[in-house]
Structure prediction request, 520 residues.
Amino acid sequence: METNEAFNLAITKGYQTEGKAIQLGAALLNGTPQTHVLVNLPLKTLNRHGLIAGATGTGKTVTLQLIAEQMCANGIPVLLMDLKGDLSGIARAGISTPKIEERHTAIGLPYSPSASTTEFLTISQQPGVKLRATVSEFGPVLFSKILDLNETQQGIVALLFKFADDHHLPLLDLKDFKQLLHYSTNQGKDEIQKEYGNLASASVSTILRKVIELETQGAELFFGEKSFEVNDLVRTDSNGKGIASIIRLSDIQDKPKLFSTFMLCLLAEVYNSFPEAGDLEKPKLCIFIDEAHLIFNEASKALLDQMESIVKLIRSKGVGLYFCTQNPYDIPDAVLAQLGLKVQHALRAFTEKDRKAIRKTAENYPISEFYKTDELLTTLGIGQAFVTALNEKGIPTPLAAVNLRAPMSRIGVLNEQELSDSIATSKLTSKYNETIDRESAFELLTAKLKEAAQEEPTEDNKANDVKKTKAKEEKSIIEKATENTMVRQIGRTVFKEVARGLLGVLGLGGTSQKRKKGWF
Prediction:
């Protein structure tokens, strides 16, 4: 009894809040929920980021949905990366069942089914509001990092972006940038090198290959117009509740390069667009990234460095980031250290390696006199998790095993008709789903290449010109030679005629004299 009282007092004191908070559930002691000993997350510290981890089937995606809907209920807009397609249920009210009622009775909280106003977004061919961004909006530095270029290649990209800016060549989609690469090694090579310096053809070819690699993962659907405005993510409905924006990503699980590109672009745009906010009573926006390992496993070092920088700085913009993955070590240490909230579901110990990983995971949580953390990590049930957060003063709360409440929205996937109905009522569809392909670098450079091709002789024409020139030269030589021959011939003829005349006269006279003298 004394242990129970000490535990209840420690948890109640540790998770007590003065302002508004999200109620996750009731604390567990010896496997039993302590009714009304609630674990609360202060809204004020939700921009300190968070982690939701656990083995497959332990309920971490449902926990993500629970936290997201509670944020919406408190007027905080959320953005959800839905890679498995099972977060769409947040758009519909849940259904009370005996099992849910039993859980909520044990926790000491009522169950009131409700839904969140939802927008469905997409970066692929799936139905939804289209998310796009232009190549120019990435800028040369970020675009180079996405392509994983070396220092020399980054310099070339920066040079080409500068050339495009100076010559009013809009870089909107990947075909614009590919055409610029082509132009830089052909008719435009001399022009660019004269103004900006030499370009190595081998480096340009490498950049082109990197762009094609990104293109094969479907990035051409993401790059273009009309660019999505991140302020459209920060909206509330008519009741003052935050709107849940769900990005449907179930068809790009096998395209980690595209996912990393999209996430980095989105976070960079949010960071650059939002003003400094300082400490707010609640965040402006919280972003949930399910299957977060897809970002980090395939990302280049440059991409990871950029992600770490954004995670460290974006908090000051009033934005919280929440990563959902199976193992905490899917997240780089530099990012993991920035996460104020940690919700750890059960882990499985099937091998010696698993047991070592569990002991290592347990060391990342505060020491508790009430739990043997490494042992309890393998025995937590579905819908139960270890939780530690930051209180309103920014101090880590005591470690608490929690029996989590059920989401008020539906657990599961919307059917096609429900999804179509939700998309049809979206206020953003008409704004972003119109395809725009205005004149840009591709069209302008194509025109220049055609113009240059018309002015410059083709290879066949060059060959014909060479033949004609040679023929003229040969003809000239022949004519000169003929002319000289004729002159010489005429000269010889005249000379002969003159000579004959002279000799004839001289000969006639001479012969007569010779005959007279008897020479003959």
User: Anything to note?
Assistant: Residues 459-517 form the longest helix (59 residues). The chain has 18 helices and twelve strands. Confidence is low (pLDDT under 50) at residues 485-520.
